[in-house]
Amino acid sequence: MKIVIAGGTGFIGRALASASAAAGDEVVVLSRRPSLGAPKTVVWDGASTGSWQQALEGADAVVNLSGESVAEARWNEPRKKLLISSRLNATRALVAALSAAKQRPKVFLSSSAVGYYGDRGDELLDESSKPGSDFLSKLCQDWEKEARVAEPLGVRTVVLRTGIVLAQGGGALSKMLPIFKTGFGGPLGNGGQWMSWIALEDLVGLIRHAVVREVSGPLNGTAPNPAVNKDFSRALGRALGRPALLPAPAFALRLALGEMAGMLLGGQRALPKRLLETGYSFKRPDLESALRSIIG
Ligand SMILES: NC(=O)c1ccc[n+]([C@@H]2O[C@H](COP(=O)([O-])OP(=O)(O)OC[C@H]3O[C@@H](n4cnc5c(N)ncnc54)[C@H](OP(=O)(O)O)[C@@H]3O)[C@@H](O)[C@H]2O)c1
């Protein structure tokens, strides 16, 4: 199988590229930066069409993981514009390339996030649940809409509503581990907000599952057992053998992070209904064992 990964240099993309290469696939990474190492890298600007489009010819799958990190900087207006443009422009360019391809790829899997649903309290959410109305939710809705322009081209299209991805070396845990290791970790706000998490090894597994199965449309990329934030903090503390009792008050988070604090103080209780229906078997369905295996 030939798989093209836009954003394949990132936290999720690197894991997907190496699992795909290990499975014997031909892997091509689209990156804004040239690379000397494997896998094969084709340079694009993440925003416009160009000679890079050749890389999509005859591919079996195109996976879109591009986008500026939502957790790296305060969401002021320029940052918000960048979060939006880095996702919409990259997705638009990929769909234009799919459209122009002489040998169209069979499947386009484009990332979205559980932020699509907004802050929903204890409500159980599956792929048919309605979207939210905050900044991240609107961003995800626009992002999915751009990706689904590929549907009428006859390219099977999946939008992956990814949860909080857990692994060493990146994502949420790379921010949490240094604090929790010192014993100063704890719940955020009242700790009652739901966290729809997923182990990176399962996210990679389900992307590969979605590529080969006849699945299309939205897919929740989350483990079947979401946890409230205070239980997540306790489980992380136990995995590290450290107390995790010190709460971070909501007002302090709002002061420090501004609007971005809403992402930590609110949450989603999303379930991977369609993934389970299509027969995906989770390697790490439970938080406690997932954290223990990640932390080792
Ligand atoms: N990690 C999570 O927990 C999580 C949760 C939900 C959704 N997601 C989504 O999943 C996708 C991948 O996540 P990740 O954690 O692997 O992110 P990441 O490590 O930040 O990687 C994202 C990749 O996107 C590319 N990129 C960055 N800015 C860009 C821009 N302005 N224009 C075009 N491409 C740009 C970069 O590739 P180059 O520099 O090589 O071009 C980078 O390697 C993201 O869209 C993210 O929003 C992640």
SSE blueprint and pairings:
Elements: E1 2-6, H1 11-22, E2 26-31, E3 40-43, E4 61-64, H2 77-100, E5 107-113, E6 124-125, H3 135-147, E7 156-162, E8 164-166, H4 171-181, E9 194-195, E10 197-199, H5 200-212, E11 217-221, E12 227-228, H6 229-240, H7 250-257, H8 261-265, E13 269-270, H9 273-277, H10 287-295
Parallel strand pairs: 1-2, 1-4, 2-3, 4-5, 5-7, 6-13, 7-11, 8-10
Antiparallel strand pairs: 9-12
The structure holds NADP nicotinamide-adenine-dinucleotide phosphate.
Structure notes:
There is one protein chain. The chain has 296 residues and is an alpha/beta fold. It has a single domain (2-295), classed as NAD(P)-binding Rossmann-like Domain (Rossmann fold, 3-Layer(aba) Sandwich), CATH 3.40.50. 38% of the residues lie in helices and 18% in strands. It has 10 helices and 13 strands. It has helices at 11-22, 77-100, 135-147, 171-181, 200-212, 229-240, 250-257, 261-265, 273-277, 287-295; strands at 2-6, 26-31, 40-43, 61-64, 107-113, 124-125, 156-162, 164-166, 194-195, 197-199, 217-221, 227-228, 269-270. The chain has a 7-stranded parallel sheet, with helices on both faces. Helix 6 runs parallel beside helix 10. The longest helix is centred in the N-terminal third of the chain and has 24 residues, at 77-100. The protein is globular and about 55 Å long. The protein starts with a strand and ends with a helix. The model has no long low-confidence stretch (mean pLDDT 96). The protein binds NADP nicotinamide-adenine-dinucleotide phosphate. The site of NADP nicotinamide-adenine-dinucleotide phosphate has 26 residues, from helix 1, helix 2, strand 5, strand 8 and helix 4.
